[in-house]
Specification:
Elements lengths: L2 H14 L12 H5 L3 H15 L5 H6 L6 H14 L4
Length: 86
């Protein structure tokens, strides 16, 4: 899956499931959209569905620094690269 396809899926999740209104790629999800830790856990579950596998505890811990959609995309690409899926 390309970065652009991933971006479209993530934006769809954020707009449909989290009711974001036109999220920008560099919006701070917490400050600009009220994204909280419970939302982050739910989003990680949806990322696992996109990836088609469960994330390890270490991979989930690395997600705690995510602030923007671009961070999410970088995070997914790093996981895929680490697992040689890219």
């Amino acid at each position: 899956m390309t970065r652009n396809e991933l971006k479209d899926k993530i934006i769809t999740i954020l707009t449909e499931d989290f009711e974001f209104d036109q999220p920008g790629l560099e919006d701070n999800l917490r400050d600009d959209h009220g994204f909280d830790s419970i939302d982050a856990i739910e989003l990680l579950g949806k990322i696992e569905i996109i990836l088609g596998f469960s994330l390890t505890r270490e991979e989930k811990e690395k997600a705690m620094v995510i602030r923007t959609i671009n961070d999410i995309l970088d995070y997914i690409e790093a996981i895929n690269k680490a697992r040689n899926l890219a």
